[in-house]
Amino acid sequence: AKESDIESIMAEFPYAFAEEKYPGAPDIKLHSIPEKSFSAGGIELLPIKALHHKMPVLGFRAGSFSYLTDANKIDREEMEKIRGSKVLVIGALRKQKHISHFSLSEAVEIIKQLNPKQAFITHISHQMGLRRDVEKELPDYVRLAYDGMRIIV
């Protein structure tokens, strides 16, 4: 998060950052995310900038795994950070175009450009349709993600 994001979060949820918290208030520690690679929990992460309509958001690459969801635009330069990933998880809300999320066809186009060995679509709305039907329309190496799914990288 940028400093302005941290300030917004603290203003929106002041009870979580009060010096004397009431019982049950969350204990949150906010950290700024640098624009370059950084380590978290012993994992090297590379931030990937994208847009959720007009709001800047981040995806991440960890080794051969890249994750980008809740977005509708990614610049070519940022796409290059994903290139070479073996596994890509990307959001696609529904088949129809949306103001702040990739559609299924937009996500599949990005996947085809980046050509990972495997890709999973996440951040899916009920408007997408049934998994068994939608997956018939996708390339063999692209699947819809589901709750509880585990991906071995």
Mean pLDDT: 95
H-E order: HEEEEHEHEHE
Q: Tally the helices.
A: 4
The proportion of residues forming helix, as a percent range, comes to: 10-25%
Low-confidence stretches: none
SS-derived structural category: alpha/beta
**Widest beta sheet: strand line-up:** 1-2-3-4-5-6-7
Q: Tell me the span between the first and last alpha carbons.
A: 26 Å
Overall radius of gyration:
17 Å
**Which of globular, elongated, flat, extended, rod-shaped describes the shape?**
globular
- Beta content comes to 15-25%
The count of β-strands is 7
Main β-sheet description: 7 strands, mixed
Strand and helix map with partners:
Layout: H1 3-12, E1 38-40, E2 43-52, E3 55-62, E4 65-68, H2 76-82, E5 87-91, H3 104-114, E6 118-122, H4 131-134, E7 142-144
Parallel strand pairs: 4-5, 5-6, 6-7
Antiparallel strand pairs: 1-2, 2-3, 3-4
Describe this structure in words.
This protein has 153 residues and is of the alpha/beta class. It has helices spanning 3-12, 76-82, 104-114, 131-134, and strands spanning 38-40, 43-52, 55-62, 65-68, 87-91, 118-122, 142-144. The longest helix has 11 residues, at 104-114. The two termini are 26 Å apart. The model has no long low-confidence stretch (mean pLDDT 95).
